Amino acid sequence: MKAISMGPAKAAQPPADGERSANFSLLRLSALRKMRVVEAPVPLLELAGVSKRFDPPAGTGSLVILEEISLEVRAGESVAVVGPSGSGKSTLLHLIGGLDRPSAGKVLLEGRDLGQLSEVQLAFVRNRLLGFVFQFHYLLPQCTVLENVLVPTLAGVGAESPGPNNPTRCEESPEERAIRLLKRLGLGERLDHRPGELSGGERQRVAVARALINQPRLLLADEPTGALDQASARELGRLLAELNREERVTLIVVTHSMELAAGMGRVFTLSGGRLQPSPAAPGTPPPTS
Ligand SMILES: Nc1ncnc2c1ncn2[C@@H]1O[C@H](COP(=O)(O)OP(=O)(O)O)[C@@H](O)[C@H]1O
Ligand SMILES: [Mg+2]
Predict the structure, then answer these.
(1) Which numbered ligand comes closest to the C-alpha of 94?
(2) SS3 of 285, please?
(3) Which one of 45, 99, 195, 279 is least enclosed by Cβ atoms within 10 Å?
(4) Are strands 266-271 and 78-82 parallel, antiparallel or unpaired?
(5) Is residue 258 within 8 Å of 225, Cβ to Cβ?
(6) What are phi and psi of 119, to 5 degrees?
(7) Ligand 1 pocket: which of 63, 69, 268 to mutate (most atoms <8 Å of CB)?
(8) Which chain residues have CB less than 5 Å from ligand 2, an ion?
């Protein structure tokens, strides 16, 4: 967001009569020239008093899952959300990802209120600004690893354009980028394999490459290691933390794993509908204003 601030010439007063109007116009022009464009620090993500309730069939009362959650996440941060099963972690991630809408409050991505966007605009935001990794990989079994990673580029936005995160890599074609990411994730020898020929950890790494192919600003991961053995989970956690730095992608991870959470810059606990900084949090939250 850009805030306009006026220079000293804003003290110019309206003319008292017609004769002074020419002078006033000149003053106004000079004032405009002295306007300074100030970059206001807009968080990449802001949750402002977000609540979510589900209204089951009449008579059974509504189910309050999230209550007035406020959070700011700056570009480049990594954040973990932990909490008991059923506490609303996936619900929260769905709201952040524009997959669902809050009952109250706002979700702002780069200052845009997702609640004000049409479904088409939301689809654009999801494809262009967000990457998703889920507990299960949802790879297409009939496609190769490389083809799976390229699927999000078929929507016609993203990897062909410079991208907000990596303007220096704008010369990369989607295929070059997919191969680079897959090699980075240790899958350089697996480009032509089908998902059924891979281990669980390898499949999940393909899903991470697919989530990053359009150079998202924000990567949302919901229990990404939940279906993996300990060694594969540890490897994926390490890769996610490294990609957060290397690809300059902001990361929000929902997890049961305290080991994965400990690798993130900030850790929050979701419980009773409230989001609290976790005592185990390794970092200190940045100021909220
Ligand atoms: N569409 C829905 N309708 C009704 N209840 C839902 C819906 N989605 C989630 N819930 C309920 O919200 C609660 C939180 O779910 P969820 O966000 O999946 O928790 P978590 O990811 O922390 O395990 C659960 O009690 C779940 O049953
Ligand atoms: Mg969940």
Answers:
(1) 1
(2) coil
(3) 279
(4) parallel
(5) no
(6) -60, -35
(7) 63
(8) 90
